Amino acid sequence: MENQLRNAIRKLLEEKTVDVAIGYGRVGVGGAVGAVFVTDPSEVDRLVWNAECRQNLAVHLSRPEVKALGKPAIVVKGCDARAVVVLANEGQIDRENVVVVGVVCEGIQGADASGVATGTLLDKCVTCVEHAAQNVDILIGDAAKAAELDAANAPNAKTAGKQAKLAALLQKTPEERFQYWRDEFSRCVRCHACRQSCPLCYCNRCVADKNRPTRIDTSATLKGNFAWNILRAFHLAGRCVGCGACSAACPAGIDLDLLNLTLANAADEQFGYVAGKELGAAPLIGTYAENDKEEFIR
Amino acid sequence: MNSETKTTGGFEPKIVAFVCNWCTYLGADLAGTNRLEYPANVRIVRLPCTGRVDFNLLVKAFEVGADAVLVSGCHPGDCHYAAGNFHARRRWGLFRELLDTLGVDSRRVHFSWISAAEGAKFQKLVTEIVEKTRELGPYEDYKAIVAEK
Amino acid sequence: MAKIGVFTCWCGENIARHVDCDAVSNAVAKLPGVHCSLNYKYMCSEPGQNMIAEKIKELGLTGVVVASCSPHMHLKTFRKTAENAGLNPYLVEMANIREQCSWVHSDREIATAKAIELIGMAVEKVRRNHALEPIKVPVTKRALVIGAGVAGIQAALDVAAGGVEVVVVEKEPSVGGKMAGLSETFPTLDCSQCILTPRMVEVGQHPNIKLMTYCEVEKVEGFVGNFKVTIRKKARYVDITKCTGCGACWNACPMKGKIDNAFDFNLGFGHDKKLGKRSAIYVPFPQAVPARPTVDAENCLRLKSMKNGKELCGVCQKQCAANAINFHDQDELIEIEVGAIVVATGYQLYSIGKEQENPNIQGYAEYGYGKYKDVVDSLQFERIISASGPTGGEPLRPSDGRVPEKIVFIQCVGSRDNAKGITYCSKICCMYTAKHTMLYKHKVHDGEAHVFYMDIRSGGKKYDEFVRRAIEQDGAIYHRGRVSKIEEQTVDGVKKLMVYGADTLSGKPVVVEADMVVLACAMTPTTGAPQLAQKLSVGYDEYGFLSESHPKLRPVETNAAGVFVCGACQGPKDIPETVAQASAAAGKVLIMLSQPNLTREPEIARVDERLCASCGACVKACPFQAITKEEIRDRNGNLVKTTSRVNPGLCMGCGTCVAVCPSKSVDLIGFTDDQIYAQVESLAD
Question: Which of C529, C665, C261, C343 is nearest to A209 (CA)?
Fold first, then answer.
């Protein structure tokens, strides 16, 4: 598969279909997998594809310095592919001007503190039903295999992995939940790595960095941490694709994506809305239906 | 400033209400015109439309010590701006789920439709919210995170 | 440095009884930025306003808070006061310590404490207010009137008389609307056509009026003062500029006397099948304006054959000396620019038996409308007794052309009937039913006119006298009660309608063996009214009646600036009311178009284009399509960035965009985040 991927990208670069390919390569300390930007067809061997390709590369698409490199090709897994769709739907990229190279992903492994793969699949991969990336221009890998894996996960898609963690949290009393988040958020240092790693946090100036008025505390006070994490999660309502980049980036190890998952579940249950499923879909927030539920309104 | 008062000598909840200018604000005015008395614990922030109410304002209200918040606007179909309340309703439906996962006390977050003709509904709702919040007591959980530096 | 003046009003005793105004003034004087704090018995009185004006001048105040009644009561008053004293009016805010404080809290200590907090919020807000200038928008001096019934005709003539150009769009081939088909009108019994047709002719000839019949509004863009309206000119197959209206075509048409005429509500008569029927090329009624025919594509033999690649018939074309008939005519889209729009799309009768457009409304199958030919609705009866109708005003019943000896009139068919889904009163039926009984009795002296009614609602000048006349002079028989069902029976070889009803005053069942039944059906908005309302961003109720801006104070305005309503599209009403409302709408149009520029409130949204990431959330969310995505280019034409931009002419200031903007790059002037957060923060312990 890795070779197929390299060949496909080589062709795109050689034929000048694209100017740059955003893919995975061994770039970090000790050969950790991260993003590489290949502009020369002779360098496509830098590209790798394996179970350590954790990052959602779509985060780079809206970056001005990456845009300056010219027309891109981007390697995406199933989850990441939906982020590309959201970016296109929100006008951040011109979908016609990006070549999306999807891969069939059989699951990504977690890493220990030193970055070594643990051999166990990430939570999100346990419930994944999009092993073959959708809405792509080129698909690398065995689609039949992907369909098999999808079918195997389908029965547990709403119950296993992160969903199980969320369900366990929701089993607790509201007071216990509040205490849980209080403990978690008390470790937040407001480094905003969650924001920087998110492919959909692309504002030119984040509201958290604005101070007239100071809508949320700019420093890491506990109330500011609550406000920040509420704001971050809600700004992704109907947009988050569940790639888990935020949680993976969090140095304090906070399960931030539980909040995103809550909203993704609510979007699906209340409005039948799945973020990034469809090119050209209207946003969840910013549209309405006259019969949206309102049993909670008096 | 605080209106902690003498009547009960006990806990007087602070309630912040974000209401639209055309329906609920006028409903509150009508309660006044009809002299429909209700507890004095609510502070109304007048906005053009519930569509204008950002969720972060509710968070801010808790940060300044609110024991409960209310967001109220025009009934569906009555919006002065045709659809602001529809947009608001969709956001609230989602936001409530987030608050629930966070363990924010949903008994302290209220949403209502009150028209300009519903002075009596405004009186009744505010009275109920104040009484219920009195029973719940001060929102100690949130006050605690505000107090912690 | 802020120099804020706080002026606390006693409102006589209204505020002072429960709020200690001196204590309030003293407490708020200590708030940051407050430069002077005074109270007075009646702040809205002349001395009160003078007090504010003098302090503005004397102390050079930068902001004013008036703590008194609701801003809905007096914000405009005090802003004007400030403006006259040289302070920008938008630097004035109010604290509502009457409706929302002294009137609802009787404990003086509590009310006083709350008043202080409310003023504190207003002070924090006003510290962050900005001087604003009303927005000026240029105006296109031309009006559009949609619908040319009596409402549209009146509105158009009044606007035209004011020297402003008017475009009148009518979906039917002729102007005149429902009124052109009525018989005589209550309470004077003057002939409907006699009073309307001169107006119809005037609309057709007025130099300031451009009449567009057989046209519909396709699309509305733009905003108050500057609407761009696309009009669909439906294929008429007759060039009305060439046609002389000689009538050779419709007399030669082989379909003559065979096609239902919608103007006669598709009436047909058993004894003479041609009665009331028209040709495929037709003028709906002799007095039509323009008096030019239209080809009915569904029934024209030539047009039907052309679909199959043939060219049959064509008789009319051969007859036409003016060469005005063109079988290849097509719909045309025409764009016009107007400054104001009057909607006068009128009504129709609620469909009694058939399928309902509105799923919440049910019909009256038990009355046999559509099944029994002699059960007609009131508009059909108007045609039967109209001198210009198919029978020439002879009251003949449809099934066999006999003169009915007994007619039963049933009121409130649909109206005021929760069970059937319409709760409102259609307002005109009591009056026209009384009129129907009179007109019938005047023609059939020994006939019997029975009326079943729920109540008689005859409010209006000379209205009740009119109903009394029907009963006392003309001998109409009124039964207070409902009809449960109608059955057709043959008695002595003649079809009769057995009407089973009740008279609740005598407590007895009533059965009338009638020759004919007339149903006074509920008035509903014309088909397509909600769709048109959506194009115009005008609100409408569950039935599709358009919403006025305020039921008392702004009865012809709508919440879409520059769009006005009149006539039955806004709610059931009779001709005098319709005409009055149409003139009112015309007056409002003339007022609006009399200025070179429109001024609008400046409290609208504004985008910080440097920071907007152009995610498009606000573009989608704006209820008024006031926000668009725009490209910013440098002087060489290179794209620098895209951004959202608010059209100040369209923005109504709801602020929905602000709530959906993740980076808060859009803000609502007058209700900025800066102001609102400060208000909330002023409540901190």
Answer: C665
Domain range spanning residue A120? 2-156
Of B59, B60, B94, the CB nearest to A263: B94
| Pairs of residues, one from chain B and one from chain C, whose beta carbons lie less than 8 Å apart | 151
Specify the residue for token string 């009403």: C573
Confidence of residue C222 (pLDDT cuts 50, 70, 90): confident
Give the minimum alpha-carbon distance from C612 to chain A in angstroms, rounded to a whole number.
7
Mean pLDDT, residues C345-362 taken together: 80
Q: For the segment C3-22, what is each residue's pLDDT rounded down to a tens digit? A: 999 999 999 999 999 999 99
Predicted TM-score (pTM) of the model is 0.74
* Residue A296: how many other CB atoms lie within 10 Å: 14
C414 Rama class: left (phi>0) / alpha (psi -120 to 50) / beta: left
Least confident segment among C59-68, C439-448, C591-600: C591-600
Q: Is residue B2 part of a domain?
A: no
> With contacts defined as CB-CB under 8 Å, which chain C residues touch A214?
677
Cis previous bond, C576, omega within 30:
no
B contacts of C100 (beta carbons < 8 Å): 28-29, 32, 44
Name the more confident of C540 and A135: A135
Q: Which of A251-265, B26-40, C349-363, C502-516 has the lowest mean pLDDT?
A: C349-363
Task: Indicate whether A230 and A134 sit together in one domain.
Answer: no
- A90 within 8 A of C642, measured Cβ to Cβ: no
Amino acid at position C262, single letter: A
Total domains, chain A = 2
| Cα–Cα distance measured from residue A180 to residue A186, given in angstroms and rounded to the nearest whole number | 10
The residue type of C176 is: G
CATH number at residue B35: 3.40.50
Contacts of C355 (CB under 8 A, 6+ apart): none
